[in-house]
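The records we work with from here on pair a chain with its fold. The integers have meaning only within a learned vocabulary of local backbone shapes. A complete example follows; check for yourself that the lines match position by position.

:::
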Amino acid sequence: MTVLIRATRGVATATALLALAAVSPGPAYAQQSPPSSLPSSPSPSPAPGTAPAASSGSRVGNLQLPAGWKITGGGAGRQLVWTSPDAVPMGDARVEFHAGDRLLGRPVAQQDGHSFRLPLRDVRLVEGTQLRVTAAGRRLDAPGPARSARIDPAAPAALPEAPLPANRVDPGVPGRYRTVSGEYGLKSVRLPGFPEPVEMRATVVGPADAPGKRPVALFLHGRHETCYTPGSDEVVGAWPCPAGSRPIPSHEGYLRAQRLLASQGYVTLSISANGINGQDYRAEDGGAQARSSLIRLHLARWADWSANRASAPAAVRRASAADLSRVLLVGHSRGGEGVNRAALDSLSPPPAGQDGYRGPVRWKIRGTVPIGPTIFGNNPAPDVPSMTILPGCDGDVYDLQGQNFVDGTRGVSRGAALHSAVYVVGANHNFFNSEWTPGQAQAPAMDDFSSDDGVDPVCSPGTKTRLTATQQQAAGATYIAAAARLFVAGDDRVRPLLDGTGRRAPSADPARALTHAVGAHRTPAFVPGSSVTVSGSGGRLCAQVDPDPARACLSPEAGGMSPHFASWEASPEPGRDAVALEWATPGSPVALRSARPVSLAGSDALALRLIVPPNSTGTELDVTVTDSTGRRAHLGRTRVDGLPGSERTASYWAREIRVPLSAAARSGVDLKRITALELTPRSGSGRAWLMDAWGWRPGTPAVRAAALARVDIGRLTVAEGDSGVRTYRVPVRVSGQSSGQVRLFVPAPDTGELTSRTVTVRPGRHDIDVPVAVRGNTRFGYDVPHDAFVKAVRGTAVGSHRGGVTVLNDDAMPTVSVTPVAADVSEGSALTWRVTLSAAADAEIMGGVGFLPPAGGTELSTEDVDRAWLEEHLGEVPATATPLSQLDHGGLYLGLSVPAGETSAEVSVPTVKDGVSETVESVRAQLTTYDGSWEPVPGPEFIGTVRDAS
């Protein structure tokens, strides 16, 4: 067969990189590797400082791809490649490819930070499909927001709300203790799956003279560049740091919060995790388990030092003694997911093969504070109180997926632990860490929020709602101290700052921090789902995550995003619902009816979490409840205003509204048997979404962890073998002492199409059974992942949420040879060579042909080949005749592919008659292929001769 060969502009090695990226095997759920990171990575890179040139968009059959995109390969080997003209900064959010509103998968970033690749398998793309690259919902391949719609009304149309009343206790006021600080460094540790050791380093700030043993606060930073070169703007994500560079001291970025807590009597430590950041692209969970292991390794050392204080480093001995029975964990970005996993692992141990800590638990985690966190595993620790800070102008974890540290705990365990969300208007992602803040950091730093197409009315620096770095850091320190005071010290006076009561801490002024919560003294009343029916004009049960606009709570045309509706790995995702209300005129009620009566007895109020559109004001709803006898009680009228927002922000966020139950008691309604909740719009046309409704009373109950079943999914790697069919099973470990339920998701390995079901699991049983049939053969192919993942439903805790069976190719790649088909032609004919494999393969074999200066004579130039061919495949044609080996960026480079099942392909260069009498011209070319590790392998050289047609 004859294969049309494309040429692309750019460095020859960069073009080779695209070919490599297009065929290198890997699961659709792959990790992003850091830019300019591991020199041992097999991907070739362009010269330092040189960006790969993004193509103008390639054509596959009748499908024209946008600029920067290409598809190569066929069958199971098809790959979708996007190349950015600018480096994509290393961050905490994962990069995703979308076709329209459908998630195609999470691509692998190449070492240069520009190119990303994703196996397509049997996914079909059709003309008109919008390809998008996003990170936590933020568009990377085009300026502006991830969604094209605009929010109406536009910010800042909403009138500013009056400041909330001040809380009677302000946790941001410094305490009475003098503080001391220092740093310790211990021998580096080995963590499973990471080839390089990880540092054991921490900055300690504590009280110098506090009596007795003091509570502990441990801080963990997020995923950031790891190394910088002093005196330059160069930062990399490598580990260990390259020669001449220094580690970025991200762990020193929380000193303001550490000093505040230390003055209040807390011993604080902030640990370094550059060694994880530089290697977590290797981890299926994004490094959550590694971060948990590192946290617990530090706590184990502190437990040792608590027992033998003389053995502690000087920085530890200078501070007051630590009480490991009272520990608060604070984690920023991926560090937030790390502290959540450490809290979970401290209650139920992870599988030994996945864990870097093997000793006893000699500490107690009283609470966690995730700040702008990721939650890739969607597995919050339900029985450990938490306060999640959501930065309203987060430019990294753009979708504010950390909201699931609150929403994802509902119904999983007893519900006694308070889980609070604190939405900080005008805060970005980076500035909570001073070492990620320009003007404060030792290494180069940046404002992560950007608006490429103009000034954002909410988040651009200088707008009324955007916080300065110092204002943001003051607010962060204050609310961290509030969490410490509530979760560790048990001071219920600060609870109104965190639980949706609507109070402010003056120390955080002028920051506007809004809160809501689940858990504590709340009893579930109406949580939208299969047990709730919705009736009434303008009301419907909607899916938080669903590509179908008719089912989705928030359509793509709405503009902006909701943290509550942040997508996970499944779309649609069953089990995540809300109630959508829309009305054109007031007065039409929407009723929610529970399948069985619910009790509000003992509650003071009904607490509703309601979303209204950003920048809207004055949404009013009447709230009525009905008991099982049909008796009704009007509880009152609520008013809800939207958050400041733009199309770039995740501002569809629920406000907590409370209506007293006293009217129901007076009317004789049986609060023990409530069957319906009715919401009646009283304002003009509008929209709202009910997340849930709870019976509420004040106070913070003691939390006792339930005996949950713990589920961990592992990964089994097997060779395909040469013959026969073998059946393997996805490894699953269920530990603990009780049964529970999880939702199991299984994507098809060829299409990615998901199936899901609810499974009851019991320790020691094999209730989750995912068989994988592996057929052996003797033909070269790609590794094939068969994945499965789970999410807690009830009575379970999920550790490692994803795993599977990866089938490794165990056959050698065929050898490649080149033979001439038409290597001596007259001008006007095509030079053609045949590339032949020694055997057919089950995967596409990729390579390329580069042009070299001939040993002598005249080289074929751009004037001697078909111009339309050059324009179509090269993109730009030089104005003057240029030898093919001397084109910009290393000369012409032709990508080559031999489709799966085939044994040959042809490379052709069409020449033209120029009507000029001239000497014989020639080309000299070399074939390059790639070995099993995707290292380039130089192949044979070959030549072609073109003679004058006259």
Notes: The chain has ten helices and 52 strands. The radius of gyration is 30 Å. Residues 1-56, 73-77, 145-149 have pLDDT under 50 and may be disordered.
